[in-house]
Amino acid sequence: MNLKKILFLLVICYVGNVFSQQIITFPASDSIPHNNDFTVKVRVPGGQWQDLYEYEALVDMHRVTSSSMVNFDFSGTVEFSVTYNRGKVQTARIRPLSYGFEPKIKGNMLTFSLSKPCNLSLEVNGDIFHNLQIFTNAPETYKPDPNDSSVIYFGPGFHTVKNNILQIPSGKTLYLAGGAVLNASISCDSVKDVRICGRGIVYKANDGVGVNFSDNVQIEDLVFLNPSHYTVCSGQSTNVKIKNIRSFSAKGWGDGIDLFCNNNVLIEGVFMRNSDDCIAIYGHRWKFYGDCRNVLVRNSTLWADVAHPILIGTHGNPESGKSEVLENMKFENIDILNQDEKQINYQGCMAINVSDENLARNILFENIRVEDFEQGQLLNLRVTFNKKYAHAPGKGIENIYFKNVSYNGKNANLSIIEGYSPERGIKNIVFEGLKINGTEISPKLNKPGYMQYSDFARFYEGLYVDKIVYKPLQVEQK
User: Fold this and answer.
1) Which residues make beta-bridge pairs with 133?
2) 3-state secondary structure of 3
3) Are 185 and 206 in contact (CB under 8 A)?
4) 31-137 belongs to which CATH class?
């Protein structure tokens, strides 16, 4: 190969690399308060630094605190320079810890880089409240025409609508461009074929998105800052997809994603930091009736400042002969960063608490990593009668599989597994590869003087529980 060809190929490779590395920031909106705790700059390697707008995100209803949030798109590699403006940096960490990111510290500055989009929490000196949430995406491939009649388009800027509720008709796409701020609830009621997307922010709505009696609704990529109640609440709907949304709440009943009587739901790539349950799955309540089936939650990060990261049960139909089933659910590849719940009745990072004649069955938790939390339990499986919210005890819990679940920490209370009566019990619970602080809870622990694996796991196995199995993680052969 002659010199000209070599130089030509080198130029092509260089140009291709330049175009494969890009950062896309969005117009800042001063309609959302700025937080001065951090100064965040980003660049492609060797490029010019770009300042980001650090939004205020309120967290934790018990002690409402202003955390920080930045968001942008990129491809290739992005370098961060983060200045901590609250004082000296003694320690710093980036969570989820499973990602393995470690910032370099120099004075009050932290540096690190990313090579793929993800959702992170940067915490200085152990402060999980005045932290920096970093949300990144790959560049958008869908950019609708603002004049398209099938699109409800909001460009950069602050937007309100009449009565603070935006109704989305069937067949429409709601698009919030980067830099758009919508101060309204979004409603999908008795509709089908709806898409809600973009890089914008839904800000301080009463509820984020309601999806009721609807089919084929997709919600993706938006940031929900501090709705008064739910981020997404869906009742008696089918084929709902919730992908890559990020959510903060700091008021009572500020649930993240609640499903009532839904079928065929995908929740993927979300970051939920909520002052109530992050993800809750129920049967009947209010005007919604029916079983809840086929729910997949994966590749997500859950942070419950109050209540449960994951809750199944509680609400159902107590009428004789009309009991409902919550079944065929999978929670996969999830990092749980916190639970802070004083009330024993509402503890459990993974909780199945059935009341109101509910039967919960065929549920898999796989590759779940629970970091140390403020207070709560690793899991809580109970057939119970929650008299505050229900009118009858639950029917039962059966066929629950925990595979490759780990907890690393010291603050977990005793977990509870307990039925209600001989007819309303718990059966067929399997723990495969359960690890507590690095120790696998399995027959490998067969040491003199220890007869119960639950002692190692700190699980209380109460009445009306039949067949709990602890076994080592089976490595699948490829």
Assistant:
1) 69, 121
2) helix
3) yes
4) mainly beta
